[in-house]
Amino acid sequence: MNRKLTRIKKYEDLGIGLFIHWGLYSQLKVGEWTEYIHHRDKREYEQLINKFNAEEFDADYLVSNAKKMGAKYIVLTTKHHEGFFLYDTKGLSKFDAIHSPAKRDIIKEFINACNKQKIKPFLYMATYDWHSDLYQNDFEGYLNYLLESVRILCTNYGPVGGFWFDGDWNKKDANWKLDRLYGMIRKYQPNAIIVNNTGLQNRGKISNPEIDVVTYERKTPDQVNHGFGGKYVAGEASITMNQHWGFAKNDVNFKSTKEIVENIVHARGIGANILLNIGLTGTGEIPIMNQAIMEQVGKWVNMANESLYETRPKQELRASGNTKDVVLQNKSKNSIYLFIHDLKIVGNENVVLGGEGINLRSFSGIFKEIKKITWLDNGESVPFMQDKNKGILTIDAGGYTYGTDWCVRVAKINF
Fold this sequence. Notes:
Elements: H1 6-14, E1 16-21, H2 34-37, H3 42-46, H4 59-69, E2 73-79, H5 106-116, E3 120-126, H6 134-137, H7 139-156, E4 162-166, H8 178-188, E5 193-197, E6 213-217, E7 227-228, E8 231-232, E9 234-240, H9 257-269, E10 272-279, H10 288-304, E11 311-312, E12 318-319, E13 326-330, E14 335-341, E15 360-364, E16 372-375, E17 384-387, E18 392-396, E19 408-414
């Protein structure tokens, strides 16, 4: 049996996180990979540091909005592939926020705001680097540069929730000396979660025994690879609100609240955390569409709150039939939550909306006698039939009251 470390148990209880991409690229408003994909001249591109003023970046406001959305942790880019640091690198590089017109240590402000509002700060670090000439010409020297940049994060900001690395996939055959890097993190931040994004081609794979979480970029899979050499590892899916991680002004292809909510439920249903990403504007503001979606998702998360964090899927608890419905159990095992998809709104003889009549949903693996089942959104009772001997439960999910549609409705079973 794979052993589950305390830090990983606590990480899984966080459930939902906010991913934030912000850097020099945000000023150009065309996505985080614009330097590479649009073949921009490096010297010209890096002059953007001279316009980085961060005048609308408010860490307290940002963290407050994340909390309202239901995030228990935030992953912020400390350095993306462009190589620009959002913190004071203590002389390691002049390509950092301290040497910009902002003259601010953004990461310090971010971590302080997280600590103040009791939310876990996670720090993203790109290992694939377009700025440093060492990356292509002296890889050994680059690894020393990377190590020192992470050491600064480990030793200057107090405890952090975790480190989220991204880019080893660019040199998949190289010796990244991960034992040295992760060993240094364990020395200074023993309780920090270590994540190394496997990229689009190797979702769910593990590169080192110190890895605590496997990633599924832009995807919520059907199952999570939880085992590695006797160690239990957590899973994390990450999704964007549109088609870019960084701010892209002309990307109007945003996901609906329904799609995002269903992704959250699916991730929790397979035992994974989920990161919902936003990209800040060039001056550090939350774009209006991102903020609106965060508020809508936050309404649903607030309604479903008790069912989302300290709950886990159980193999024997399953929805029957061809549905997307999910079953989760809380840690004390005294409650089970049913996540019901695709319900319609109840109308009347003049407005028929499809929610009229009986809507039966069945579940297996529930042998304990049920006392009652109620909807989390309004506390109303849910009609049900139970065969304790066979462990089968059938509920009449009915439909939404006119004027309401939660996208995914949650019913609580009490024993």
